[in-house]
Structure formats: C-alpha cells, structure tokens
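Hello again,

I reread your note about wanting to compare the complex against the isolated chains. To keep things tidy I'm splitting this into two emails, and this first one only covers the full assembly. Below are the input lines as submitted, including protein chains and any nucleic acid or small-molecule components. They are followed by the predicted structure of everything together. The single-chain runs will come separately.
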Amino acid sequence: MVLNKESVAAEIKAKIIEIAAQTGDDASELELDEIIPATGLIDSTGLLELIAWYEKFYEIALAQEEINIDNLGTLTRMAEFVLHKKG
Amino acid sequence: MAIAIYVPRINNNDDEVKVLAFEVSVGDKLNVGQIVGQVETDKAVLDVTASVDGYVLGFAAKPEEVVQVGSVMLWVGETKDEAIPEIQDPLASESSTQTSQITAKARILIEKNALRADIIPPIDGRVTVEAVERYLSMHAGAKPETKASAFAQPAQALPEVQGKPVSLTREEKGMAATVTWHRDFAVAGYIEIDYDLAPWVEYAKRFQEEKGLLMPPLLPLMAWRLSEIAQETPRLNATIIANQRYEYIPVNLGFTIQAGDALYLAVVRNTEKLDEFGFVNALGDVLRRAAGHKLRESEASGATIGFSSMERWKVTHHIPILPPHTALMIAHAAGKNGRGVLGASYDHRVLNGGQVVTALKELSLPKKYQA
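Full-complex prediction:
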C-alpha cells in the first residue's frame, strides 16, 4: 500500500475526532498544523489511545523518546513521521 | 539444567489464557527480556519474555491452546542440546519447583503457609513473595481459617423482579476480585484536602516545554512526587502480612488507565532507581502499552502504591478502591476555579489519618516549591 501525506493526515484526523467525541469534544475543525495537545481537544488518555492506534494502524513501533512534539505534535508532523518510519 | 518459561498471569482472576503465537523456534538463541510469544485473554494480549539467556529447547504449549497460568510454556537451556525434563503437567509435578527460581523470602512464606512451591504461578519466571501473596489472596477461600475466597459471594436468592443472568467478562471478574480484597482485607479510610492547582500546572507546563513532550506530564509528575514521598516514608509503601507491617523495598507505582472497556493498573516497578524524567518516560511507556492492551506481565501486577485520576471525566471527587496489598491510593480529580481536591484511600491497619494528610500536603506542591 502506498501512503501519501494527505490521506494519512486525514486518517489521523478521523481518529482524533472519534477520540475527542468520547469526552464530548468536537475536533472536526482541527487544522493540519495546530499543536494537538495545545488544542485541549483530547487529553493525555486520549493521546495515549491515539498513539496506540497510530502504531498499530501504520504498523510502526515508536520508542518513548520519539513521542514528542517535533515528531507527533500536529497532523502534518504525524503524517510525515509515518512516511519517515515506513522509509 | 533446562529452565522453564511459564505461562504468565494477565489479570487477577484469570487462571487460564490462550497461547497466541511463538516468536522463536527450537534452537534459537534467547536473551533476557526477549519476546518469545504472546498469550491473550478476552481483551488483553501480553508479550511473554525470556527470564534467562539461553537456547530454546522445546515447547510445552501450542499456539491457540488454552493453558493454565503458571504451566510451562517453553524450555530454555544453556546449550542447544540439553534434554527437556519429562514433565507434561508441571503444575502437578515436583520437578517444576526445581526449575523455577524461588527467592529465600518466598520460600519462608511458602513454608509458613504450608503451601507447595510448585502450585505458585511465578512472576517473570520467579516465585517471589509477591507471587506467593498473590496466590494466597486468590485462594484464601481454600483455607478454612481464612476469610471467604476472593470472589466468593454468599448464595443469594433471585430477586423477585424478572431479569436474565449475564456472565462477567474476565476484566469484570478481575475488578470484582480486587474490590473483594479491599472489602475482606483492608480497613479502608478516605481523606481529602483542598489545594491550589497553579503551582503544579505551572511546573508541568514548563517541564513539557523544556522536554518537548507530546503528553501533558502533570499526572506523571504528581505520580513521581508520590513515589519520592513513599521513598522518604516507607510505611506509605507497605501492607499488613500476618500481623506485621510489611514495608516493600521497591516502590512499584500503579497508575490506573481506562483503555476502552478495560481498566488497568499499569505498574512502573523500582521507581526508586529512576529520576524524574526517567519515571515520566517509563510511565509513558507502560501507559502506551496499556492503551494498546499489550501490558507485560510485570507491568500488570505488583503495585505497592497507587495513583488514580478521574480528571478525564470531569469528576471532582472519587474514592478509589485499594489495589491488593497496598495501603495508599491517591485520588486525583478535576479542579474547579483554580482549586483542586486531592484525596486518598488508605488501609487504616497501616496508616492513620494524620500520616495520610501529611503525605497529601506534600503531594499538593511540586518539591521545588516546598519550603
């Protein structure tokens, strides 16, 4: 399967919308370059769920030190990081 | 001599698990900590890791087979050509005790309780005091002088109102067993204090910026502070065993996490060997595995102190259940108007209210803000 940045970002956004809905938040307006934790749309438990899904869905393993704002802070960065990891 | 790697326990109330797969083959070289395969219950999948270095000699279980917790999963030898012991049912065999590692303290506890060592499911390949205590708490009903079994309930007549019985999931059974330990063994009390949220929020924000963290570190930092306080005050990190206070040497911090329908107590062991950032990373690691239902055996058991937050649900007050063999569980909740409530369930056999309030007050401020 060939991944492209836009479709990966859209998949991640769909997951964030689903997680945010669990606590009654609406993430449909989340922008590509917004810092996800700073939006307050998903809390730390939601972020953990997002990362667990991200690893499983894209079949990548993350080291704890890779889980930072630079790599995963926005939709764009998360999408780029998948492509980078898939090499 | 061949060493057994045992089928691990995933939760308190599951005596059987399914072997999913093996990731090694006969003759493979193994290193301690290497994943050898996976087992699963209804919702959780657990990696089984090698407890020793060596070579895979053979398998005692098969993929898709439902097996007893504590039975032999595979054999490891120092060389490739060692003989596998002729054991088909290690739970019923004396030989399994020869191949498991039993600590000296565990042996004393086993003798004191007139148990057989071979019936104790090991933890990460070792029969420790913790493994014996876990066995005792799960099988208390088997001994006439002890209280009712962990999940035994008096027979109840059916209610007059019509209904239908629904079987509990394994997680629900595990929760029931934990709650029953709290009821049968702990003498639970609860205390809470009001505190100013600002210092912790400010401290966590700065920490997150400095380290470039994705996850908000407020709760991990508070959990780390709890670990520090427990290191300074050993009775907070203790339980009661045979009318004596049993102060744990390591501080194993259990942190509750809801993953889908499952509620886990994810455990960071030996926190006294970590620093603040190391703890935040270690907790992040186990929480991430819990969120993916992939907790390792040693990360799903062995808590000596606990931290629970219901902030996510905007709950402003909750009284947690004490995990088995702990005396203190912190209750963190959502704040309001700049003020928060920090509570604690505690075992009054181990701690009194004053000691708990002192700990809560210490916890209510980051260390660097304290006089």
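For quick reference: Residues 87-99, 141-152 of chain B have pLDDT under 50 and may be disordered.

B.
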